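Next comes this protein.

***
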Amino acid sequence: MHFALPPRKTSHPPPYAPRTSRSPLLPKPRLQFIAVVACCALVIIFLFSRLFTSSDGPPSGTSDVVIVTPLDDKMYSQEYLEKIKKNRQHYADKHGYKTFFPRVTDYDLKSAPQGWSRVPAVRHAMSLNPHATYFFHLDQNALIMNPTLSIEAHVMSRPRIESLMIRDKPVVPPDSVIKTFSHLHGDSVDLVLTQDAEGLSQGSFIIRQGEWARFFLDTWFDPLYRSYNFQKAEGHALEHIVQWHPTILAKLALVPQRTINSYNSDSVGKQDNILYQEGDFVIHLAGCNVETKRNCETELETFYPLWEAAAHLK
C-alpha cells in the first residue's frame, strides 16, 4: 500500500500576515471622564476623613497645662473657695492654661479619707484633656503667689528640671534606704514632688500626661492601699509605692520645696529653708485643715492681699 507524502515545504514561505489592531474597550474621552470622577471621589473621601476623625496633633486652642484643685464645700466657705478659684483662673488666663475644679465628693472613695480625692481628680482631668502635656495639682489650701512663673520655664523644661533635681537623696526623710536616681535625665521625668521634714508632700505636684502617668495614678489609687488605713492615708500610700516600685522611682524628680511648695510659718514640718519668701511661686498653708488651733480662712487673709498686689488686681 502506498501512502501520500506530505507536501514539501517551500523555501520561500509567505510573509506573516499583518496584525490587526484592536480598538480599546472604551473610547479615550470616556476613560478620561472616569479618571476625573475617581480623583474627585478620592478627594471627597479624604476631606470627610479629616473632618470626622481626630488627627494625631492637638486640636487648635489646646492648653499645655491643666491646674487641678479639688474643692470641699463642706469644709470651706463659698467665699474662701471663690478666692481659690479666682487665684487659679487668673494664673491660667495669664499663661493660656486650663483649670479643673472638681468637688471632692465627685468620686467614690468608699470609707477612705477625702484627701484621696486628689488622685481620681487628676486622672479625671487627664481624660477630659487628652492633649494637655502637664497637670499641676495644687491643694485648696494653697495660693499661687508669683503669677509670672510658668510651669514649663520654672520647673519642667529640661535644663531647668535637671538643675533642680535632688539626686541620690533618701526619698522619705530622714533615712530611707531608697534614694532618688543620680543619673536621671530631664526628659525622663514624669512626676515632680517635694518633701518636707516629715515625708513626701502631695499637696503640690506636677505630672506629665502619658501611659506612665495613668499607671502611676491607678497604682496609687488601688483599693488595696485605700484599705490599709495608713496613718497619713494617701500620703503614706504615695511614699510606699515610690519606694518599692522602681518603675515609679525611675520617673520621679524631687525638687527643693520652695520651688512649688513653700510653707507658711504655721505649717507642719516647718524649717527656715522651706518657709515662703517674697517671689516664691506658691504658698501652701499645709495642715491648716487638720490642726485644731489653726484656721485656713484666717491664714489665707494674710497672703491673699499680697497675691492681689502681685497680680495687679488692687
Summary: The mean pLDDT is 87.
